[in-house]
Design a protein that fits this description.
It contains eight helices and no strands. It has about 160 residues and is an all-alpha fold. The chain has two domains: about 80 residues, no CATH class; about 80 residues. This is BTB domain-containing protein. It comes from Emiliania huxleyi (strain CCMP1516).
């Protein structure tokens, strides 16, 4: 973009679409100094990593893209799981999607208490989470039925011995 023959090189002002100043500044800092910095705000780090990963993809900076993906995986928490799940669904990030789905399943009460359910905007993601919940209910019912059958066998053995 700033190389020889590009109009941006000599422009007084450059417009970069689909980003904000802080994310673009983080990209430039990374390119110039190899410094990966998402900022200090814990809640904002996930969004900055999403924005920066998009820039890394757009400008073909694969190492930065990998660093952002790693930061996203490390930032999955009750308050961030649902927004990250939706972002992973939108961007086609299967690894982050699976991690967020598992996190929501394993920490449902914490996600719900953090307001994660109210943050849900994507109907496709909502259907996926509902499907996950129904699968867990079926799995639990199967486990209870197996336990009941085992308990019935034990009771029958005890009754025979008595």
């Amino acid at each position: 973009m700033f190389g020889i023959g590009m109009k941006e090189r000599d422009a007084a002002e450059v417009t970069v679409r689909n980003t904000d100043l802080a994310s673009f500044t983080a990209l430039i800092d990374y390119l110039l100094s190899d410094k990966f910095d998402l900022g200090e705000a814990v809640g904002g780090r996930a969004q900055r990593a999403l924005d920066l990963r998009e820039l890394a993809q757009m400008y073909q900076v694969p190492r930065l893209e990998l660093l952002c993906a790693q930061a996203l995986q490390e930032s999955v928490a009750p308050a961030s799981a649902v927004p990250l799940l939706e972002a992973a669904h939108t961007t086609g990030d299967g690894r982050l999607l699976a991690q967020c789905r598992r996190f929501v399943a394993d920490h449902a009460a914490e996600v719900r208490a953090s307001g994660g359910v109210e943050q849900l905007r994507d109907f496709g993601v909502a259907k996926g989470l509902l499907g996950d919940a129904l699968d867990q209910v079926a799995e639990l019912k199967g486990a209870v039925a197996a336990r009941d059958a085992e308990l019935g066998k034990v009771r029958a053995e005890v009754a025979e011995r008595a």
